[in-house]
Specification:
Residues 1-21 form the signal peptide. The protein is built from five helices and 40 strands. A hairpin with a 2-residue loop joins β28 (356-358) and β29. Helix content is 8%, strand content 39%. It has four domains: 16-163, Immunoglobulin-like (Sandwich), CATH 2.60.40.3640; 175-286, Immunoglobulin-like (Sandwich); 292-385, Immunoglobulin-like (Sandwich), CATH 2.60.40; 389-484, Sandwich (Immunoglobulin-like), CATH 2.60.40. Strands 1, 3, 5, 6, 9 and 10 form a six-stranded mixed β-sheet that branches. Strands 11, 12, 15, 16, 18 and 19 form a six-stranded antiparallel β-sheet that branches.
């Protein structure tokens, strides 16, 4: 099966406004003044083009029986003009749409692009194929040649709207997968779990270095017909065997690729596959069982600090850690290098650590204790939270099985300090937890056994320890030890 996507770049830059045919690259280096200031000074106007609203359904309908016409279809997305007597000519340099570069032609003051290239740029810019009107910022860089022979850089922005093709309606019955990993058995498809609006998830186990698969609308599994029940609802990719871990989908009747091809998963492992039928895309990620942290204070791999899994939340982990000012950290799914990440993750710093991307690492600006909630699934997210720890249940000050500030531990100021609980309200079995993200307290609980902090993680209920009323819990997370006294 061959790649069936039509992507054509037809245009060459360099045509100028006015009679002069000098190319920009032949001019002296333009002055370094602000391009926006130059546009204002020399009255260079940037405006929307004549094709300010493009509907891809209409474009494909226009060329339904003429694929060659579709390949050369173009739209004018911006225009440049100036009546300033100091300008001899204007040369086009480049154009991008919402930050995505696109080939363009410039003639008679008009910026023209291939319609299919623009549609692809929209797909990349919004990471979506959803049938939603998109407002695009068209950023044009140019150079004006003055009558003095000098050249000045100029730039401006116009807007254009594009609506991608209509996508299939979301299946009320849900979705399933078939592939090499289940021998394409139509009677036993892998049913995907609904996890959100238009979002579905499944875990697959591959046994070959490359495993082909496709998505399907859910169907009656009693003797299904491939022609009548299965193939009409297939979702695939533009290219057969594409092993990209994030990709867009195509469907039966998709005018840009009417025959969905089978993507593939590379490697032998357990994988989480997430399907997004709103944006017509999917992601593939190795199912993560463990997560470790290293960094500048850990000898960059000499030591790996293990994070604790959140019970029943696949691929999510937490830890209480002291970060030094200027400390760099990274994460990996094993205590060693490989598939590691840091600066690539989405960062939500609610606790003020000043955690930012520093290349592929994460850099902390403000020293202190923090709770790190790290997601390593199809998305990689690092949430930096306040290191709040609570008593809960019979030993809590209020005796309730609810997280409350009255049961919060004090937080030490130094790296070697102890977190100290309020005095136990009664003699009972002690229960402690952190609390965030709406998770039930028991999913993030821990205990002190034989002087060591022991986490429940994804395991069963822990061994219980009885304490006396009036005692307190003392926790040293740097050394991983604790006591009740």
């Amino acid at each position: 099966m061959k790649k069936n996507q039509i992507l054509v770049g037809l245009f060459l830059a360099g045509m100028t406004l006015g009679a002069c045919t000098d190319d920009y690259t032949d001019w002296a280096n333009p002055q370094s003044n602000s391009p926006e200031d130059a546009a204002a000074k020399y009255e260079i106007n940037y405006a929307a083009g004549t094709d300010a609203a493009i509907v891809m359904d209409d474009v494909y309908a226009k060329y339904a029986d003429d694929a060659e016409g579709l390949k050369v279809d173009s739209v004018v997305i911006a225009s440049l003009s100036s009546s300033n007597a100091n300008i001899a000519s204007i040369a086009f340099k480049s154009v991008n749409v919402n930050g995505v570069a696109i080939d363009a032609a410039f003639k008679d003051g008009k910026v023209k692009v291939n319609t299919l290239e623009l549609d692809l740029a929209v797909r990349k810019a919004f990471n979506s194929r959803a049938h939603v009107e998109r407002t695009l910022d068209v950023n044009v860089d140019a150079a004006a040649k003055l009558t003095t022979g000098e050249a000045v850089s100029t730039s401006g922005t116009a807007q254009v709207k594009l609506t991608p093709v209509t996508t299939p309606a979301i299946s009320e019955k849900g979705y399933c997968m078939m592939g090499d990993f289940q021998k394409w058995n139509a009677n036993e498809p892998i049913v995907m779990e609904k996890i959100g609006d238009g979002l579905y998830k499944a875990v697959v186990t591959t046994t070959a270095e490359k495993s082909w698969f496709k998505f399907y609308r859910a169907y009656d599994t009693t003797n299904p017909s491939w022609d009548d029940d299965i193939n009409p609802g297939v979702l695939g990719t533009f290219e057969d065997g594409d092993v990209a871990t994030e990709n867009f989908l195509t469907w039966v009747g998709d005018p840009s690729c009417p025959s969905p091809q089978a993507p593939a998963i590379s490697g032998i492992n357990d994988f989480i596959v997430t399907l997004d039928v709103v944006n017509m895309s999917f992601k593939v990620a190795i199912k993560t069982i463990d997560l470790f942290m290293t960094g500048s204070n850990y000898g960059w791999g000499d030591t790996w600090k293990q994070l604790t899994p959140i019970h029943s939340a696949e691929g999510e982990f937490w830890t209480i850690v002291y970060l030094e000012a200027g400390e760099q950290i990274k994460f990996a799914p094993q205590a060693g290098w490989g598939n590691d990440f840091g600066g690539e993750a989405t960062i939500n710093d609610e606790a003020g650590a000043g955690l930012t991307a520093d290349g592929t690492n994460l850099l902390a600006k403000n020293a202190g204790w923090y709770l790190l909630h790290v997601v390593n699934t199809t998305d990689r997210i690092v949430n930096v939270l306040a290191p709040n720890i609570y008593l809960i249940g019979g030993t809590a000050a209020d005796g309730k099985w609810e997280v409350a500030d009255v049961n919060k531990f004090t937080v030490p100021t130094g790296k070697d300090g102890e977190f100290v609980s309020p005095a136990f309200g009664a003699a009972d079995e002690v229960r402690m937890c952190v609390n965030f993200g709406g998770y039930d307290w028991w999913k993030t609980e821990f205990i002190v056994l034989d002087g060591k902090i022991v986490y429940r993680g994804s395991g069963n209920d822990q061994e219980r320890v009885k304490v006396a009323a009036g005692q307190k819990a003392y926790l040293n997370f740097t050394d991983g030890i604790g006591s009740f006294k």
